[in-house]
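Homework help thread (please don't just give me the answer)

Our assignment gives two proteins as sequence + structure token strings and asks us to describe the second one. The first is just a warm-up. Here they are:
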Amino acid sequence: MNIVNESVSINEYEYLIEQIGGKENIQAFHEDGSRVIIELANKLDAQNLKKLKESDGIPSFIQINSQLEFVPDKDSPKEFVNLLKTLSIKTERKKFLDQAIEFVSSVFTPLLPLFAGSGILKGLLILLITFGWISETSGTYIVLSSAANAVFQFLPILVAFSTARKLKVNPFIAALLSAALMEPGIVGLLNGNTSETISFIGLPMVLMEYSSTVIPAILATSFYALVEKQIKKIVGESFQLIVVPLVALTIVVPFTLIVFGPFGIYLGNFLGYIVNGLLSFNGMISGALIASGWLVFVIFGLHWALYPIIIGNIASVGFDTILPLTGVANFALAGATLAVLLKTKNKNRKSIATSGLMSLFLAGIGEPSIYGVTLPLKKPFIATCIGSAVGGAVAGFFHTKALALVFVGIPTLPAFLTDTFIYFIISISVGFLVAFLTTWMIGFDEEI
């Protein structure tokens, strides 16, 4: 079935929809982070796929069965999504796992710049101390160190605010509820109570340290969202301004301290224990497995599930050993992409590979190289996984550390300035070289 048309629309997204058979061939769509996934009635054949890939202005994409996964070249897929909605194309109802991953992605994506800035500042401070240019007791160090630590100290407030925006409820009230968990009076109870429990209207309440936690804030805000929506059904609009925050403070805060807080902390500790336990048991094997599978996680959006664990590790012990493995995968992807860039004769592919490399090195974002270069060509993606495995084994063996959650690229390398920094540099170099050489040796099919 030939469903690729010849005419070209002015708007690249209108042209794209036209080339995949028009709205009649689109059954549904949904967003997944930076991707737009379209379900087709009739999948594109090899000829149509080749023609579409050679078209100018088309975003990077890959076809999986009857689905087309696009990574728009702009900062966000909003323009593309708005056009699909304008054409009255229905939004696909996502499975529970997809919804959960998309939810986590939406909550943490706005916070990533904060983690990046904090991590780079921490790395620079370590560098200054190492060379003796600053003292840990100086006022300058204390001020800058406090600034870098603030995002983790008050992380529940930021997470609550972001979660509330996702759930479309008042983010300021949500932030206030999480701030209440860290109010000096409650913190004082924890510091001055030897039994670690108190009672609230006769109910036992386990005392916990909530600064730097993630899951309790998400659970508390989700509960608050239910409370707010129910109150607005009962109370008139003129009274909601007072009643909503009053009821939230009276009900949600105690309920969080009694139920959601302890449960969230225990759950976070359990997940972290499993992942960190694997790395501690055999760092080389675990490092190879996590690094080689990381880009597969990215393809399916599963990588977001590990971010709360990474944040929890950094908040609790000051470093994380998972994030360096993602850096190995990024640099292995860069190695394979560079090999394709140097070896391909296709001008369009050279252009995509160049932009993909820039995105990887400068921003630590791999989707353009995944969807535009390595995955469509298959062999370079396999080479990337091989390079990631070898580099990941090195990183895991030396238990390389990260100081903050960042997208791993050249500008964010200071976030890895710990006592294992040299081993991290070795591991990403190994991943890069192995992926580059493997891609160069096994080659790829230019006709794909």
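The one we have to describe:
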Amino acid sequence: MQDKTLTCKDCGATFTFTVGEQEFYAEKGFTNEPARCPECRKAKKASQKSSNGGFSRR
């Protein structure tokens, strides 16, 4: 295994998918490579958290 250079689908920046990250993904059973750079992944996660995942509280 070796580091891979991927392109973020949100911002278009290139980022490195390291061997360590690839091993982590394999351990977790993930079959797809990340589509977003770490910054966009963090932003997406934060926006999902603040929106309650689409559910409204009563």
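TA reply:
I won't write it for you, but here's a hint about the kind of observation we're looking for: The chain has one domain: 4-48.
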